[in-house]
Amino acid sequence: RLRERPFSGPPVREIAVAEFFAASGDPRGAGFFYRQALERLPGNAPLLHDYAAVLERQGDLDGARAAHERALQSDPGFLPSLSALGVVLLDQGRADEASARLEEAYRRGDRSTPLLIARARLSEGSGDLRGAVGSFQQALLAAPGDARLLRAVAQFYERHGENEAAAQMYGLAAAAAPADAAIALDRAGLLIRMGRSDEALDALRDPAGRAAARLAIGGGWIEDAADSERTGRILALYGRLRATRK
Q1: Are 167 and 194 in contact, with CB atoms under 8 Å apart?
Q2: Residues of the chain with pLDDT under 50
Q3: What is the pLDDT of residue 26?
Q4: Residue 138 CB burial class (10 angstroms; 0-12, 13-18, ≥19)
Q5: CA 34 to CA 21: how far, in whole Å?
């Protein structure tokens, strides 16, 4: 109903509400208000960057890429969108284009966790495992408690058969972000494959409780499709493990 009370200045109300929804886990709501704000500030690079982030969260990589490209057209020196565009391109399988953006951002001083994770992925993809480890180490020194980073390192270890090390990193990631369903599922899946089903059950107990609580109060309306799918998988896997233990 903000449109019913027009404000002649910048869209600070829309931006504030969008940021609230983004922080509270509702990317669709955030996107709605970012779009309203962009009607008034169509070339604002930070605003386009934040809008791209919520589109990426919804799985709309094409939309996120377009928003980052618009941000760079408006401000070619805007590093957050330069590195974020590289990450999106990498997620889309466009490694050469991604590498160009990421290396430019790195040369210009960006040392953000997403950029370093992406550089590690590029190195791994080209067979340069030493380079991948170096990027991960650099990121861990800067952000040792970042759950996204810890999960990425765990996945790297798992891909290369270092399951014990992967399990330890998944444990750290779960401690850093106990409500992250993707981390919980990755961790439980590895533990099951390692023959440690009891530990997997313990790892899923709290996430399953949170998932059941969201369903009970109807809070699932704020979840995107990926979140809803993970919620269902957690509850199903937890149920199977409990049945096996009995």
Answers
A1: yes
A2: 220-221
A3: 87
A4: middle
A5: 10
